[in-house]
Amino acid sequence: MSEGTWSGSLDPECDPGDISADGRANALRLFNLYRWLADLPPVVTEPTRDAQAQACALMMDANNSLSHEPPESWKCYSKTGADGARTSNISSGPGVASVLGYLIDPGNESTFGHRRIILSNDLGPIGLGSTGKSGASCMQNLGGTGRAGKEWTAWPPPGVFPMQAYGDRWSSLSDTGWSIQSEDIELEDAEVTITSGGAPLAVDVEPLQGGYGSTNAIRIVPNGWDPQAGQTYSVSVSGISAAIAYDVVFVDCG
């Protein structure tokens, strides 16, 4: 999918410009595809949030660094960009490619903050900004007014799940972990079993910090195995107020 074309420029002009319509549309399309897989409603972008995300992306690219609290000494600093940085997922990669990275979420295994916000009941509208295929990107997503109302959300979710969404060339969900998040179900004492073809598979389970897109969440790490296309994996969660059970069917979309 095209990353689009960036119309701005870095230091010294520091013009945030904008990402072309196809770049923003492709990032949003992928974003909503993953939410659809998780049985969550689509979200839309909003111009003010897009502007914050675009100014944020300019700052990240100009300084070749990532920060949710960029100092005023940064190249191309602006209040608009700083506001965007504080309320965004931020990436050193372009907008379309970064969406899957947020859902794999390497380096954030204690929170899965990027993933949980994308899969939040409250998400939307959002802002998307990027400095093109060799630049940085920001996804403004805090302060949403969505009301999806799901009792719990898993990643990978119940149902058919494409292997192409399981990982990228750097990492996969076998490395970072699967997850379940909920606003109302306390998960810290959850016991999780995963089976395939009736055979139990080893997993490690740990609670995640609250406040990142959901009040409660757990990380489920495959221990010594990877899912295979064409196989069904049955997940069962006990030790909580309302037991959870679902199947994930992995498919290769080519």
Q: Would you give an account of this structure?
A:
With 254 residues, the protein is of the alpha+beta class. The protein has two domains: 21-140, CAP (Pathogenesis-related Protein p14a); 153-251, Immunoglobulin-like. The protein has helices spanning 21-37, 47-63, 79-86, 95-104, 113-118, 173-176, and strands spanning 88-91, 127-130, 137-140, 153-155, 159-162, 178-182, 191-196, 199-201, 203-207, 216-222, 232-238, 244-251. The strands form three sheets. A five-stranded mixed sheet has the order 5-12-11-7-8, with no helix packed on it. Strands 4-6-10-9 form a four-stranded antiparallel sheet. This is SCP domain-containing protein.
What's the gyration radius in Å? 19 Å
- Low-confidence parts, pLDDT < 50 over ≥5 residues? none
- The total count of strands amounts to 12
The N- and C-terminal alpha carbons lie at a distance of: 15 Å
Number of helices: 6
User: What is the level-2 CATH architecture name of the largest domain?
Assistant: 3-Layer(aba) Sandwich
Strand content: 15-25%
CATH class of the largest domain: Alpha Beta
Describe the sheet with the most strands: 5 strands, mixed
- The CATH homologous superfamily of the largest domain is termed CAP
Q: On the 0-100 scale, what is the average pLDDT?
A: 97
Number of domains: 2
The proportion of residues forming helix, as a percent range, comes to: 10-25%
Estimate the global geometry from the Cα principal axes. elongated
Q: How are the strands of the biggest sheet laid out side by side?
A: 5-12-11-7-8
Helix and strand composition category: alpha+beta
In the CATH scheme, what's the topology name of the largest domain?
Pathogenesis-related Protein p14a
Helix and strand element order: HHHEHHEEEEHEEEEEEE
Pfam family, one: CAP
Domain SCP: 28-131
Protein name: SCP domain-containing protein
